[in-house]
Design goal:
Strand content: 5-15%
Order of helices and strands: HEEHHHHEEEHEHEHHHHHHH
CATH class of one domain: Alpha Beta
Helix content: 40-55%
Strand order of the largest sheet: 5-4-3-6-7
CATH topology of one domain: Nucleotidyltransferase, domain 5
Low-confidence stretches: none
Distance between the termini: 108 Å
Oligomer: single chain
Largest sheet: 5 strands, mixed
Mean pLDDT: 85
CATH architecture of one domain: 2-Layer Sandwich
Number of strands: 7
Length: 483
């Protein structure tokens, strides 16, 4: 009997060890599964559920959903404009702007077939003349100016002197051609080799890659003064929208910063993404409203009034909602998104003129209270992501609703992101710069391009005038808008 009990005891100990070993393996497996799920969730992040840029969709992560949502059937409407839609047409140019008029008369009657052979000036018009305008590009040839510098003999000393080339003509490319090279490079994001072919095929101008680069650098030098003036005025703006993206110089990491004001934009290529760049550009303290995402560099620099981007916050909430398996987390995300939708319905109505700013502020108070209560209830949530979002809503609530009372301030940072768009497209084509001078030229020409777009100026005309004045030693027109 004792022997049997001993055997059973050893069997129980063995089985207990096996159970403990299996529990350990199960715990390790569950931990590994959780790690793999987190890695999978990170890999599936895209521009709709995180702060990743749209350019990273596809190769860097799961493609963003396109087309109709799941379960939604195709409607019966045909593609294109619907009945009753006000069409958009190219407006007719004024008669004095027309270069050539061609009178077209019918040869035969469209009803009985009788010949109508009278000349246009003698034909009796039965109603208004239908005008149809055709736009054409004439064959363009470059205007070549040859400066012949003569040598004249002095009647006093008998020695000869050769005339010098005028300062504005010492370059082999005129001011407008130089401006065109800069315009096509920056505004049209055209690579230099493609630009060389376009100039040769369209204008009959054969320029080497070195000459094209020289034109680019000349344009940069010409607008150095106006761009410097805009950068110095940034610190005095009532509000600024700021964003940054990656850049490269000879393969080294750089950052392209965009500072968007109401009437102009300034770009800076810098080595750092930290707050020291903000101190250099805006000074130790910026007294206006800083509009941005919740990047730590802005939080460290600016302690005053700010507006955080609701679009970034919404994408973060969507990211948590998409990958969560907890009912409480899902409820928090859906409640937050519902309040976000109500807030933006008010904002769109305000933008459309359906209410004034005072009514907007009053009607948003219940939404603010609900969001604050929702955040307060989840500050210590077991889900770390929910707790982080709740803390952001709770601690930065004052910086999320500045747009309700400050004129010109928007609830998202879309203004700065749109400003960066040209730079991002250019980066994907040119792959960055090769020198510090190239960084300066990039920042200056992007500044001119975006500022002219905001102010509805002709970019090519401004660049041509700036280059011509710079070559003559004359002041270059300011980019700062006049009252």
């Amino acid at each position: 009997m004792c022997r049997e009990n001993e055997r059973l005891r050893r069997e129980v100990e063995r089985l207990g060890g096996e159970v403990a070993e299996r529990d350990r393996r199960i715990a390790e497996g569950e931990k590994r599964i959780a790690e793999l799920e987190r890695e999978l969730a990170r890999a599936r992040l895209n521009s709709t559920n995180s702060s990743k840029p749209p350019s990273s969709d596809g190769l860097a992560g799961q493609s963003r959903p396109r087309g109709r949502p799941c379960g939604r059937r195709k409607g019966r409407r045909k593609a294109g404009g619907q009945p009753g839609h006000a069409g958009h047409h190219r407006p007719m140019v004024e008669p004095e702007r027309v270069d050539r008029v061609v009178a077209v008369v019918p040869e035969r009657c469209g009803h009985c077939g009788h010949g109508l052979s009278a000349p246009p000036e003698q034909a009796g018009s039965a109603g208004d003349v239908h005008r149809h305008q055709v736009f054409e590009v004439p064959a363009v040839r470059a205007l070549v100016t040859e400066h012949q510098c003569h040598r004249l003999a002095c009647p006093a000393c008998g020695k000869s002197t050769r005339a010098e080339i005028p300062p504005e003509a010492r370059r082999q490319t005129g001011a407008r051609l130089t401006a065109l090279v800069a315009h096509l490079t920056v505004c049209c994001r055209m690579p230099r080799r493609v630009l060389r072919d376009v100039l040769e095929q369209a204008l009959g101008i054969r320029l080497g890659l070195g000459t094209i680069q020289s034109c680019w650098e000349q344009a940069s030098e010409a607008v150095a003064g106006p761009c410097g003036e805009l950068e110095r005025r940034l610190c005095r703006e009532p509000w600024l929208s700021i964003d940054e993206t990656g850049w490269r110089t000879n393969g080294a990491k750089r950052f392209l910063w965009a500072f968007a004001a109401a009437q102009y934009a300034v770009y800076v290529v810098a080595r750092t993404r930290g707050s020291e760049l903000l101190v250099r550009v805006l000074g130790a303290v910026f007294e206006g409203i800083l509009c941005s995402d919740r990047f730590s560099g802005y939080l460290k620099y600016h302690k005053g009034r700010a507006q955080f981007c609701w679009a970034h916050l919404k994408r973060n909430i969507l990211g948590v909602l998409e990958f969560t398996k907890r009912t409480g987390t899902e409820r928090f995300c859906r409640d937050a998104l519902a309040q976000h939708a109500r807030l933006f319905r008010l904002w769109r109505r305000f933008q459309g003129g359906g209410m004034d700013r005072g009514e907007l502020a009053v009607r948003s108070i219940p939404i603010q209270k609900r969001l604050l209560a929702l955040a307060g209830a989840h500050l210590d949530d077991a889900d770390r992501q929910v707790a982080n979002l709740a803390r952001a809503l709770f601690e930065h609530s004052g910086r999320l609703f500045t747009f309700l009372e400050a004129a010109g301030v928007e609830p998202t940072n879309n203004r700065a992101e749109r400003t960066l768009r040209t730079g991002v497209q250019w980066r994907k084509i040119c792959f960055g710069n090769r020198s510090a001078a190239g960084e300066l030229a990039t920042a200056r020409l992007l500044t001119v391009s975006e500022t002219c777009r905001i102010q509805n100026r002709n970019k090519l005309d401004y660049l041509a005038e700036a280059i011509a004045n710079h070559r003559k030693g004359l002041p270059v027109q300011s980019l700062f808008p006049t009252a």
